[in-house]
């Protein structure tokens, strides 16, 4: 019995150390301008992964949530468009883990359009 408990504790510890949580985003730039210095952060967690998206361009973007505090929060997208800095909070995550499988974000000249895809059970 003691060996089983010890083995279980070791196995759970090893598995939890290798757990990686990632939030996935699909970004499309339909603004007519280049998007500069774009980043997405989980609230309260700094991210220095800046990207640029050409006018009409698209790209996939990942946010590592592995070290996000196990609390509820939201995301923040910041970017520069046509010389103006924009910052918008959006979405929701719980226990430091994304709810969505994929967040699609369309950037237009004057707004952001969000479309989330969730797991199908």
UniProtKB/TrEMBL annotation:
<feature type="signal peptide">
    <location>
        <begin position="1"/>
        <end position="23"/>
    </location>
</feature>
<keyword id="KW-0732">Signal</keyword>
<protein>
    <submittedName>
        <fullName>Uncharacterized protein</fullName>
    </submittedName>
</protein>
